[in-house]
Specification:
Layout: H1 2-5, H2 17-44, H3 51-54, H4 58-66, E1 73-75, H5 78-88, H6 97-119, H7 131-148, H8 150-154, H9 164-177, H10 181-200, H11 206-221, E2 226-229, H12 237-272, H13 276-309, E3 312-316, E4 322-326, E5 342-343, E6 355-358, H14 381-413, H15 419-434, E7 442-444, H16 445-453, H17 460-476, H18 485-496, H19 503-511, H20 513-529, H21 533-553, E8 556-562, E9 568-570, E10 582-588, H22 596-609, E11 615-622, H23 628-643, E12 647-651, H24 655-663, H25 666-670, E13 675-676, H26 679-691, H27 702-710
Parallel strand pairs: 10-11, 11-12, 12-13
Antiparallel strand pairs: 1-7, 2-6, 3-4, 5-6, 8-9, 8-10
Length: 711
């Protein structure tokens, strides 16, 4: 009983010193991969890089302690990070305090939903996400994730557009205008190190090596070269005017946001007091404010883009300060420092007394030392209602990723896997993680594979991973300052390459064409609607359910006849001739309200088409369930067939179905002598009587019946 509540107690049965050493080595190895990966994934989620370390602190340990898999490595993952960013971007600016607060609340909601599913033993709900949908979504997500890192690789800054492909077009346009070559070089070097080491020896922590080497180079060469200056050091009136105009537009947006909040409160008040005129006045005012804000946001975007495209040359003065001139506009007699300087422009107003000028590449910067604050995320009902649909999707996607990895490893290790216990583990990991500044986490395929290959015996390896992350947060965060952002981008791009699986589309198409179509449509929809990734998933799930409902409403109803090997087969697909007097009909699927009338129509069609028909044998092997509508339809079929002067028998009736027929007395109406154990018995019993007085010279079922009767 205790092991059901505390699964980790089962780790220590027959635990040895060798297993302990293996778990320590595995935990350390996974941590060396996790630390740089988690920082990269945090930025993918729109969070500061160090929040990846927070998400790597408690979740790996808690998921291992309370899950059922002993090798599953939990923490930040690419797809869940992307979904987090997509969920929160409509609510707040990425990286802002509000965005971070919503991310922690989202983690809590994800964890609560997963925990609830596990406790109620509803792990099967994940089946609503069919494999074709997940395949299409995952392939699209991999492309979206990889392409989202291009701006960091080129060292450019752009505003995000409404759709992802528009954002990528902006990135390429900006990169054509100016690419910071040292940044691109750092990214390419990181790729070369990771790919090279993977080929030389897969056991070498290639991600860690790439991070260490590029960070040392970044520190030694002064890769990051930012300086804070006053606006007066920019020796260009147009640039100074643009800065002022940009600040005015941002101030205008902030003022309109305050005005909108006031009008929204008036609208809510009018709605509560049923003041119709006041409500519509407020709604009109709100529309006007929203339109004005839209115009100002567009202006702000134009100013920001123009400022980002300005390239400056720096000229050092005698007092050590630097003055900045537009490139090709440096006055004669002055010598530029050889750097290309750019103005760092974000979404907030620029502090004209402290402008950031970038003369090098972007790095991670200061990472706070110590553990994150322990606090329950603040609750806001309106925000919770907005986040809940995304929390459900992330919960199911994250769990699907985790359980598929866990199943693959369980098949190799032979351990018992409990999906509901895994849900509990993942849920607790996200809930407790949310209280220590973690955004949503899940099981990682790459790190789980490292854990397994390193020889992890129990979940104690994940406990050691948490210990290493904790030590890093306490003592080694200053070493991460010079880590280039382009390297983190390369780490993400390298990791998601494994998510691309083009063969999955062909496999789904070969299995069923509609599955292949659903997979392709999910893929295209996810790409087309990105960053609104939920739309791609919803379209895929809706198509899967539509196909399921269609198949349920129109199950296969086939006519059987004898083949050359004297076995009853589908007459149409095998081009077999049918008997004129006996219709052997097989119904494949449960007989219930959605398809009951379809069976009636199929039987009626056969009665009308086969003019010499005398007996119908309904093969019921495929009917595994029947409801009241199905029973009523079957009763009506028996009545119609016999009133037309024909007869009907049933074969291979399932026991559960037979119980229903007995309870409703339909069995008496059909006649127990018309219920047969299999189609062979039914056919041989009715064959002679059905052909009596008939004109059919060569019945395709005659030989079949003779063989069975002689045997």
């Amino acid at each position: 009983m205790l092991t059901r509540i505390f699964p980790f107690l089962g780790w220590f049965k027959k635990y040895s010193n060798a297993a302990f050493r293996a778990d320590i080595i595995s935990g350390l190895t996974v941590a060396l991969v996790l630390i740089p990966q988690s920082m990269a994934y945090a930025q993918l989620a729109g969070m500061p890089a160090y929040y990846g370390l927070y998400a790597s602190l408690l979740p790996p340990m808690v998921a291992a302690l309370f899950g059922s898999s002993r090798q599953l490595a939990t923490g930040p993952v690419a797809v869940v990070s992307l979904m987090t960013a997509a969920s929160l971007e409509p609510l707040a600016t990425a990286g802002s305090p509000g965005f971070i607060a919503y991310a922690l609340l989202l983690a809590l909601l994800v964890g609560a939903f997963q925990f609830l599913l596990g406790v109620l033993r509803l792990g099967l709900v994940v089946n609503f996400l069919s494999h074709p949908v997940v395949n299409g979504f995952t392939n699209a997500a991999a492309i979206i994730i990889a392409s989202s890192q291009l701006s960091k690789m080129f060292g450019v800054y752009v505003d995000k557009a409404e759709l992802h492909f528009e954002t990528i077009m902006r990135v390429f346009t900006s990169a054509l205008h100016y690419t910071h070559l040292p940044t691109l070089g750092m990214g390419v070097l990181a790729f070369a190190i990771m790919v090279g080491l993977k080929k030389v020896n897969p056991k070498i922590p290639n991600v860690l090596c790439a991070v260490v080497i590029t960070t040392v180079i970044s520190w030694a060469t002064g890769f990051n070269h930012d300086t804070m200056v006053d606006v007066t050091t920019i020796q260009d009136k147009q640039a100074q005017t643009l800065i002022a105009d940009f600040n005015d537009s941002v101030a205008g947006i902030d003022a309109l946001a305050t005005k909108r909040a006031t009008i929204s409160a008036i609208e809510d008040s009018a709605k509560a007091s049923k003041d119709v005129i006041g409500y519509y006045d407020a709604e009109h005012d709100l529309s006007v404010v929203n339109y004005e804000a839209k115009l100002l946001k567009h202006k702000s975007h134009v100013y920001r883009e123009t400022l980002r495209n300005l390239l400056f040359s720096g000229v050092e003065q005698a007092d050590g300060t630097i003055q900045f001139f537009l490139q090709d506009a440096v006055p004669g007699g002055m010598t530029a420092d050889g750097r290309t300087w750019r103005l760092k422009v974000g979404n907030k107003a620029l502090n004209t007394a402290s402008l950031k000028m970038m003369g090098g590449g972007a790095v991670v910067g200061t990472v706070p030392s110590g553990f994150p604050e322990v606090a329950i995320p603040s609750f806001d009902l309106k925000i919770i209602l907005k986040l809940l649909p995304f929390a459900i999707i992330i919960s199911l996607l994250g769990f699907m990723e985790a359980i598929s990895i866990a199943k693959a490893m369980a098949a190799k290790t032979g351990q018992r896997l409990d999906p509901n216990q895994e849900l509990i583990g993942q849920g607790l990991a996200n809930m407790l993680g949310a209280c220590t500044s973690s955004y949503p986490a899940s099981g990682s395929f790459s790190r789980s594979a490292v854990n397994l290959q390193s020889g992890a015996v129990t979940g104690l390896s994940s406990v050691f991973t948490t210990v290493v992350v904790a030590i890093t947060l306490l003592f080694f965060t200053p070493l991460l300052y010079n880590l280039p952002q382009a390297v983190l981008a390369a780490v993400i791009m390298m990791a998601v390459i494994g998510l691309i699986n083009a063969s999955g589309f062909m496999h789904a198409w070969k299995a069923q064409k509609y599955d292949g179509a659903i997979s392709i449509i999910s893929f295209v929809a996810t790409l087309a609607f990105a960053p609104h990734l939920d739309k791609g998933i919803i379209i895929g799930v809706a198509l899967s359910l539509a196909v399921f409902l269609y198949k349920s409403m129109r199950p296969r109803v086939v006519a059987l006849s004898k083949s050359d090997d004297d076995v009853l087969r589908d007459a149409q697909s095998h081009a077999l001739r049918e008997c004129e007097h006996i219709a052997v009909v097989r119904f494949e699927g449960p007989l219930f309200f959605a398809n009951a009338s379809f069976l009636e129509d199929q039987i009626t069609d056969r009665m009308m088409e086969m003019t010499h028909l005398k007996h119908i044998i309904l093969v019921c092997n495929g009917i595994n369930d029947i409801d009241a509508s199905g029973e009523e339809a079957l009763s009506l079929i028996v009545e119609n067939v016999r009133s037309a002067g024909l007869d009907i028998s049933l074969s291979g009736v399932n026991e559960a179905v037979l119980v229903v027929l007995e309870r409703t007395h339909l069995l008496e109406k059909i006649g127990k002598d018309h219920i047969y154990s299999d189609a062979d018995s039914a056919l041989c019993s009715v064959h002679d009587q059905s052909h009596r007085g008939g004109t059919e010279q060569d019945c395709p079922l005659t030989t079949y019946c003779r063989i069975n009767s002689n045997s």
